[in-house]
Amino acid sequence: MYPLYIAGEFDGLLLGDRVYPCQPRLLTPYPDPEPGPQQNFNRAHCRTRARVEMTIGLLKARFQCLRHLRVTPDRACDIIVACVVLHNIATIRGEQHPALQIDDADDDPIHLPAIQDGRTVRDTICNNHFRI
């Protein structure tokens, strides 16, 4: 696994559903969100997870080989990257694809100190990015 903390910057975060514990690198929704930032966070979390799942479904629809990969994890990563590259080329060329493409509106990196508690990471993101 690649490090997610680089000089106080996150290279990425994983989103999990409620069955997983909230961890610094695996953010889950608030179980009982308070009105305002927590509800906004949960809404954005849900939309983002839905977009990720839709994208995975789109890739599996376009590349049937992704449905049942029976290879080593390293080889699976190579295959997935190749499929994503081919998908991007097809999208640039205007090829038809199985689902609607959605533009990504927010690609700003999240800057946080190296926090070790998942709930603290979630609260920091919620308070810095989801205030009304």
Task: Describe the fold and architecture.
The chain is mainly α and 132 residues long. It is 44% helix and 6% strand. It is built from three helices and four strands. The strands form two sheets. The chain has a two-stranded antiparallel sheet. Helix 1 (37-62) crosses helix 3. The longest helix has 26 residues, at 37-62. It starts with a strand and ends with a helix. Residues 1-6 and 99-107 have low confidence and may be disordered. Its main location: nucleus. It comes from Merluccius polli. It is found in: Nucleus.
Could you list some keywords that capture this structure?
6% strand, elongated, two-stranded antiparallel sheet, nuclease, HARBI1_dom, two-stranded parallel ribbon, 132 residues
Q: Average pLDDT across residues?
A: 81
Which regions have little confidence, pLDDT < 50, spanning 5+ residues? 1-6, 99-107
Q: What is the global morphology?
A: elongated
What's the Cα radius of gyration? 17 Å
Number of helices: 3
- Oligomeric description of these chains: single chain
InterPro entries: HARBI1-like, HARBI1_dom
Keywords: Hydrolase, Metal-binding, Nuclease, Nucleus
Main location: nucleus
Protein name: Nuclease HARBI1
How are the SSEs ordered, and which strands pair?
Layout (H helix, E strand, L loop, with lengths): L4 E2 L2 E2 L3 E2 L10 E2 L9 H26 L10 H20 L25 H12 L3
Parallel strand pairs: 3-4
Antiparallel strand pairs: 1-2
Helix pairs in contact: 1-3
Kindly summarize this structure in a few lines:
The protein has 132 residues and is mainly α. It has helices spanning 37-62, 73-92, 118-129, and strands at residues 5-6, 9-10, 14-15, 26-27.
